[in-house]
Each structure stands twice: as C-alpha cells, then as structure tokens.
Amino acid sequence: MHDGIRRFVVIWAAQLLSIIGSSLTGFVLGVWVYQRNGSATEFVLIMLCAVLPEVLLSPLAGAVADRWDRRRLLMAADAGAAAVTGVLAVLLATGALQVWHVYVVTVAGSVFGTFHMAAYHSMMPLIMPQRHLGRANGLMQVADSVKIAAPLLAGTLLVTVGITGVVVVDLATFLVTRVVMFAVRLPPEVTRPGGVATAPEPLRRDLLFGWRHLRARPGLFQLVVVLAAYNLFFGMSGVLVQPLILSFGSAAVLGALMFAGGAGVFAGGLVLSAWGGPRHRVRGVAVFTALGGVLLALHSVAPSPWLIAVVAPAFLFTLPFVQGTGMTVLQLKTDPAALGRVLSTVRTVTQAATVLTYLAAGPLADHVLEPMMAPDGALADTLGGVIGTGPGRGLAAVFLLTGLGLLLLAPLAYLWPRLRNVESELPDAEDVHPPEPVPAETTPARSPPDDDATRPPGRDGDASPEAGTEHPDVAQGVQVAQGDSDAALSRP
C-alpha cells in the first residue's frame, strides 16, 4: 500500500471518531435545550450558532492554514475544541448548565471546528496521491454520513450513560485523535506545501485570495455556484424532512427513516471510495444532480413512510457523487499552497446557502405553502391534484419544488462552456507525491531501436497527442506554473 494511502486511512479513521463524538454532543445539547423550554426557536438558534462562525471565519481559517503548519493547526484546533467540551462536562456534572451556556459553547466549538476543517481539508488531498482523490473524497463523504445517523446512537447513549456520559465519550474521541496525529509523521510538502514565504501577503489580502482565485477561473467559479445551489435545494428539504415525516408518522418511524437515510449516504460514499468517481467528473456531477432531483421530488407524491423509506436513502445515495466529485475537481485544479484559502472560500459560499435554508425553510412551509395547500387553498385544484391537500402537504410541496430545482440545475454544467470544459482547459496542480516505481521487466532486455517512430506515443513526458492538445485559453498563458499564477493573482 502506498504510504500516502496508509496515512490517509489512519488519520481519516481518527477524524471519523471525532466527528461521531461531536455529532453526539451537538444532538444531545439540542435535545436538552428543547426539553427544558420546548422552544423551537431556541433549537434553531443552536443550529445557527453552529453554522454562522464557519461562514464568517472560513476565509481567515483558510489563510491561516496556508501560512502555518497545517498539522499543528489541526492539533491546536482539536485541543481548543476539547477544552470547550471539557467546560461543558464540568457544567453538566455540577448542574450549573444554562441555555445561554449552550449558545456560548456551540459558538466556541464552531470557531475551533472552522480552523480544524480548514487544516484538515487542505491537508488531506495532499496526503493521498492525486489519482486516488476521488476515492479519498468518497471516504470523506462516509465520515459526513455519521452525522445523519448520530441521533440513533445518541438516543441509546442518553438512556444508558446520560448526557454527561455522552460528553465524556466526545472527550475520549478528542484524545484518540490527538494521539494519532502525534504518531503519524507527515512530510513537509503536505503540512507546508508552499514553504515559508519570504514576503508573505498581508493577511487582509489573503482573506480575499480564494475569491479572486475562483473568479479568475470561470469554470471553477461556476462549479462552486452549482454546488452552492445544490446545497440550497438540498438544505431546504433537509431542514424540513423531520416535520414532513412527523406529519404522517410517529417518532419511532422518524428514527428508523433517519437511520435509513444515513445508510444511503454511507453506501454512496463507500461506492465512490471504491470506484473513484466518473471519468468525466463535471458530467457526473450533472447526472447525479438530475437523478437526485427526481428522487427528491418523489418525496412529495404521498404521505407514506414506505415511500420515504425507498426514496430518501436513494436520494442520499447520490449525495457523495455530487459533493465528493465536485470537490475532487476543485482539489485537482488548485495549487497545494493555496488549498486552505480556496477550499475555505468554497465552504463559505456553500455554507452561506445552508444558512439561507435555515432562515427561509420554516416560514416558506408554514406561512406560504401550507395555507396554499389547504383543501380550500390557492393551489388545491392544481398542485393539490398531484400531491394531495391538507396538513403536511405544504411541506411536501417544498420537496417537489426543490426536486424540480435540482432537475433544472443539472443542465448548467452544459449550458456554461467553461464549466463543461474545465477539466480539459485548466491543468491539474502538481502532485506532491512522486510516481510509483515501475516494476522491473521480467523478459530479457533488448536494445532500443534507433528509429524514434517505434517509440510508443505518450511515453516521452506528456508528449502524447492527447496530452499535447491545448485549449486556446491555455495557449494564451493559463498554463503557467500554478504557484506563479497564484502569486500574480494576489498582487495588486
């Protein structure tokens, strides 16, 4: 096994444990607040406290990740998050925890988590060789899937060890992660791919570097727009899936269907990690976006748990192939020294779309679509003939509309030429991993012929006819060294 693959799997497994622990704590805190006051508003505020710091601080975290040693930054962020969790454990053990403490703890944990994600996401693509990035992103999607299944595990732990015990489990996962990061040795081209700059740009300019980098590459910028729009439509339905299920099912049915949905994401991530993703990645993003749109719209057809049990896992199975494959394109086309700033900008844009869903989904369903989908509502004779009328059908209408939104989003990959051709127009960034040695020939060696015409095409560097084909933009100077081009972008 390649050393990079081995390191990736070890670190990924440790981070998976940490994600599980953090997801458990986040869930039980939300339950604690809701059971204390019964306020849905306070419950939503916790979600906003978890997301807003990431949206606001990601550019800063990305700039720091590109300036400092990424491994040390990740360990420092983990230590800070562990300290926050320790304070929470003390408050719980002493019975002093108040609702406002939960908000403060959530914001502080999100701040440290933002710096953790900047270091983690900019370092992991460099640990794995480029040809395996699709598989790596599949595993990253597998790790994200545990967030969906966390409520079931958290519910079990709440019964057995209580909320304080759940927080202690979270602390234990931090300890495991720290031990692993101490033990794994990473080469400097992974932790500091850009080296130590002799005249670094002012930090305030680095905050906008990722935005300038993407705007200078229209194909990548359009890909980020597609991913943000996907997050908007997916997030809108994701926020409302629990109320939709509870409109016709029990809490036990909700738990079972949430677990089934998590299994769908998990299975999709495993398939992507084994397959590596489609050869034409942008086309794959478009195809799986369209397929996901159809499956999302089918959630609205009837108020049936059996229907949701089929279409929800199927829809979530497509999720890794959109987000993971899109991330692979961004990683391949970004200079290693700029990964922190660029990927953090991507997270800012896509997570901002998620914040919009938190703010808009509830009012849209409760105050607009639910009245319109009542038996005597404005849409009862039109849309009601398709998905029915009555309580919960306004929620179903959101799923129908967001599914159609994804279905219309898919053709953008082909309507925008720069996005459609981004994989051929932009050169891949330099792979920090040397190529694997070719096994020695077992047949007797023969003297090479003098005639160059017998030489197989493409063996002399990249001089194959396909590798030599350049888009006109490349001929005009896009194919300069990636490091030099990024430096040029950052100058006034």
UniProtKB/TrEMBL annotation:
Keywords associated with the record: Cell membrane, Membrane, Transmembrane, Transmembrane helix
Localization in the cell: Cell membrane
Annotated transmembrane regions: 12-34, 40-61, 73-94, 100-120, 220-245, 251-272, 284-302, 308-330, 342-361, 395-416
GO function terms (MF aspect): transmembrane transporter activity
InterPro entries: MFS (IPR011701), MFS_trans_sf (IPR036259)
Family matches, as Gene3D superfamilies: MFS general substrate transporter like domains
Pfam families: MFS_1
GO CC terms in record: plasma membrane
Signal peptide: none
Main localization (coarse): membrane
Chain spans, region Disordered: 427-492
Biased composition, class Basic and acidic residues, residue ranges: 448-473
Mode of membrane association: Multi-pass membrane protein
Protein name per the record: Predicted arabinose efflux permease, MFS family
Organism of origin: Streptosporangium canum
Lineage: Bacteria, Bacillati, Actinomycetota, Actinomycetes, Streptosporangiales
